[in-house]
TrEMBL record:
Lineage summary: Bacteria, Bacillati, Actinomycetota, Actinomycetes, Pseudonocardiales
InterPro entries: GlcNAc_PI_deacetylase-related (IPR003737), LmbE-like_dom_sf (IPR024078)
Protein name: GlcNAc-PI de-N-acetylase
Annotated GO MF terms: hydrolase activity, acting on carbon-nitrogen (but not peptide) bonds, in linear amides
Signal peptide: none
Family matches, as Gene3D superfamilies: LmbE-like
Entries under SUPFAM superfamilies matching the protein: LmbE-like
Species per Swiss-Prot/TrEMBL record: Saccharomonospora viridis
Length: 245
């Protein structure tokens, strides 16, 4: 087992005010990260969500046109439960997100608009902790977010953004990768764990489609938070791979 996987986790930096969370789907933040988001917003930090899709391909028994509307509503409620007021959707196609210039440009534009110091994104690596295979939407969105941080700071990349009034932003200091197999840092979510559960339960139609109950949700989040906490002083925790920019 790599040292990063087995060693103790360090506290996340706290000398920042604005974060942008970039994920592929509604529910991606809620499966393990929203407890950290709740703590940050409670501390007065500003967090914005940016979703590549509306999750329209995520419910087998519901047509994509309907699912997009349902899942958007659920995501807005879920974000509100942890103090996030701004949620933006890029309308890339769920299930077939392509890594490329369009996705990088869209994320870079959002970084320039919101001027975060911290970017949070989904695991871009091939596997989840434990070895399970990651899916393409997560990999492509995470990798594009990493590359878009640099794109956002370069005046001569995506020059059309200048015409939209979006000046370069070089103020991103870190990217925090959620659910990475190479996690290095963590956030104590003991006080916000119940809010994390509430935020995932807001995805009611999605959970029903998966056949998951409130008990399933609570057990999944609790087990993950306890597992992370064993490397972080025994508290309930959310872990990240922190990449300095």
């Amino acid at each position: 087992m790599a040292e990063e996987e087995s060693g103790q986790l360090r506290p996340m930096p706290d000398d920042w005010k604005r974060a942008l969370a970039v994920v592929a789907h509604p529910d991606d933040m809620e499966y393990g990260v929203s407890g950290a988001i709740a703590r940050w917003t409670d501390e007065g930090r500003e967090v914005t969500y940016l979703l590549a899709t509306r999750g329209e391909a995520g419910i087998d028994g519901m047509r994509p046109e309907e699912a997009a509307q349902v899942r958007e509503r659920e995501q807005l409620a879920s974000a509100a439960a942890v103090g996030v007021e701004r949620v933006e959707f890029l309308d890339h196609r769920d299930g077939v997100i392509e890594y490329g210039l369009r996705l990088r440009r869209d994320i870079a534009a959002a970084i320039r608009r919101h001027r975060p110091e911290l970017v949070v994104t989904v695991n871009h690596r091939d596997n989840w902790p434990g070895g399970w295979l990651n899916m393409a939407d997560h990999r492509h969105t995470g990798q594009a977010a990493l590359d878009a941080v640099r794109d956002a700071g370069n005046r001569w990349v995506f020059q059309e953004l200048l015409a939209e009034g979006l000046e370069p932003w070089q103020g991103v200091r870190w990217v925090a990768v959620a659910a990475s197999p190479l996690s290095t840092h963590a956030v104590d979510i003991t006080a916000t764990f119940e809010r994390a559960v509430e935020s995932l339960l807001c995805h009611r139609a999605y959970l029903e489609g998966l056949g998951q109950t409130e008990e399933d949700v609570r057990r999944f989040l609790r087990e993950g938070a306890e597992r992370s906490g064993r490397r972080f002083g025994g508290v309930l925790a959310t872990e990240f791979e922190l990449l300095p920019m």
